[in-house]
From TrEMBL:
InterPro entries: FUR, Fur_C, WH-like_DNA-bd_sf, WH_DNA-bd_sf. SUPFAM superfamilies: Winged helix' DNA-binding domain. Keywords: DNA-binding, Repressor, Transcription, Transcription regulation, Zinc. PANTHER family: PEROXIDE-RESPONSIVE REPRESSOR PERR (PTHR33202:SF8), ZINC UPTAKE REGULATION PROTEIN (PTHR33202). It comes from Fructobacillus fructosus. Belongs to the Fur family. This is Fe2+ or Zn2+ uptake regulation protein Fur/Zur (Fur). The keyword DNA-binding applies. Pfam families: FUR.
Amino acid sequence: MLNPLKNVLQEHQLKATSQRLTLLEYMMTHDTHPTAEMIHQDLPNISLATVYNTLEKFVEKKLVVIIDGISDGKRHYDAADHPHYHVINTRTNEIIDAANYDPAPLIKAAQAATGLKITEYKIDLYGVDPDSKPE
Ligand SMILES: [Zn+2]
């Protein structure tokens, strides 16, 4: 039987090792924006170092994106298989997916302003619950 994840890895010039397959499947089935530590907790058979190295490889191949700037100081990861943007609650550090925005006009504007061909983008917005008490 054809393994679609195996194909994805091969299309990105990555050897389909069982650990890479496990990690790619994990990233594509979890929308929790995990840190490497969180993934390692769920997949204790894969060492933390391997989780880190594999994620960085995936980032390099644009299979995974990094979400940073979260005040927990940790690097969070997200599968890059569906276009969406992030809204980060700065009080709770919750990273929320949202897809109700078409970035095409922004991409067009960026190209017009710079002459560059935009090849990737990342949109993170930060906010607080309006009902929460000020600190
Ligand atoms: Zn996301």
